[in-house]
Amino acid sequence: MKYKLLYMFRSLFTICLFSIAAKGKALSTYVCPNEHTSFDTLRVSKTQVLSTVEVTARAQTSRYDGRKMIITPAALRAAKGGSMAEGLKFVPGVEIGSQGELKLNGLSTLEVYVDGHPLRMNPQERLAYLQTLAVDEVEGIELLLEPSAEFPDAKAPLLNIRRKRGEAQGVKGYSQVGTSHQHLWAEQASTRVNFAHRGQQAYVYYNISDHRNLETTTLLGHTDSLLVDNRLTHLLGAGCRLTFSPQHSLQWQTIGTWTREHTLLGAQHHNDLTHRNGNAALYYEWKRLRNVLLLNAEGALAHSGLERFAGQVSSYNPTDSRFYLLSFYFRHDPSKRWGAAFNGSYQHLHSELSEQRQNWALTLQERQLKLSAYVHWSGPNWYAEVGNMSFATWRTLRLPGVNGDPTRRDWQQLPYVYAHCDLTPQYRVEFSYRNTFQLPNLRDLTPYATQASASALRTGNPQLRTAYEHRWRLSISYLRAAQLELTYQNTRDALVDAIVPQPTSYAFQRLNLESSRYVRALLALPLPLVSNRRITWTASTYFAQQWQWDKGAVLGEKLDERQHSWYLRHRHTLSWKKAWYFDLGYTYYSALRYGLFRMQPQGWWEVGASHNVGNWRIAVNVYDLFNTNRARGVYASGNRPAIAFERRWYNPKISLTLSYSWGKSSVKRTEVYERRDAQQRLNNTGNETLQLGE
Question: Which of the chain's termini has less CB crowding within 10 Å, N or C?
Fold first, then answer.
């Protein structure tokens, strides 16, 4: 008698359904109430010949691990064989823009971490990195609506992508090529090679992209075109993970980017940009019993050279930056009921911006010291965490002709509270409060005007202050999928963009508002419509209502504005025979207020299809199918006349991607021994032998 058994990790299942058929008739059915239920021995009361043994189960797409929601590989099966750049769009609530920008539920900026470490990149570089990371390398994605003590630098909801560790031995690789058309053609190619041997891992990856796009902005009667004729980007990275013992591991990684961009701003204006950036990081991890220690050391160097041409007149702006970071994280859990965590970091940033032909220069030196302490308690169905971050910053902005000490010192206490309670196995209630901050960057502080387009300038404001956010959130979720969430946020000294009139043109400048508040209600509702062996069809809806109040002074005029807006995203995902995948989505924003800009409604359609054949995968995606995504509205501040504007992208954007996974790997020796032990236990239970499939 031969048995065929399909093994799956228990953590990937909420319900396990075992059906055993004898000569076409069902003998019995076993239901596992949760993923913790296990069966060591399967006994048959009487000997009979069975034609087949079927093991079927519904894969668990998400689960809770304490306060984290774990998105399992089952949720990413529609992107199997592809890269994480495409896999993230199958994470519930995640929206990916055409330029790689990420949002959660349409309204919240989303940060991305890999193995607990942030991707310190701009959206284009981050997209290039995700194109080198295969979905098959990921063992799970952690979604945190409120970052925990483990992520002290995170200020927004985050995704932490966890890669597989030591699953296989040998050499494996992943390659991808793609092309897209958005009025102009663009291409990209990437590859990654992974080495694994006896728990030690190393990898190297490379991405090259040649991006082109066209957009136009109409403001104050001027229509400026921004034509990126060529943006050639190279991204090269390498790293390794050394596991000395189950308690000690060391990880090293380095990433380098090089970008050359040529932008046309009209008949008489164009820019040439060259950017180089290098980052290196060393991470040490120690785990023993209920203790965890993480040590990080990072360093980065960046150089940018921007040359602007206006007819026969040109200007050149070089920027040089140095960044260093030292941090630690320690967690101690004396018991299963409570524990404490401590982290601290020191970072140093030195940036220099100059204009060689106009002979001006400024230097920004920023030092930050953060110390945090958290205490957490847990019970059978609840968890609570309170903490506080002591934040100190010293910012020195040196300007030509400024006397005295320009250093600004800031010291703040940033409290944090989080709690959740599982009312039933299906329902969870969460509450959180967080106080965060946002510092203005060097470009925002520059007091000199630079050319932003053919008819627009950009000038900074050295008097900008740090913005502080207070955020309260209350949510209830059902089956880790359906969710109702209420959020209130109050931002003091909010940073907004303003339009400053000029004698012959206009300029964009960032200012501080007295306060910016909003109340938001969000409903997330995924619905499985069809689920069988051939077809899986799921529909998901995300709907949000937001009420916003802005108050302050803009260029000497009082501002007191109120705005109600809503957001809708509806999406269908269909899989057929686990080889064909289709998705269709629609996104709509009502009239809303973005800083001092009143936006008109906008919406767009997205459609995609993919097919898997062996190790190959081909995918086609269309963004803004009917070319309806245009940003239109007015700029209004105080009693000044409203200024109409329109920003247009020449969509739709059609992309074609071909992916291939290659290489051979062998199962770890420990896994072989585990299979043999399991086989031996089964042999000892009876006369029949259960063969374990590969």
Answer: C
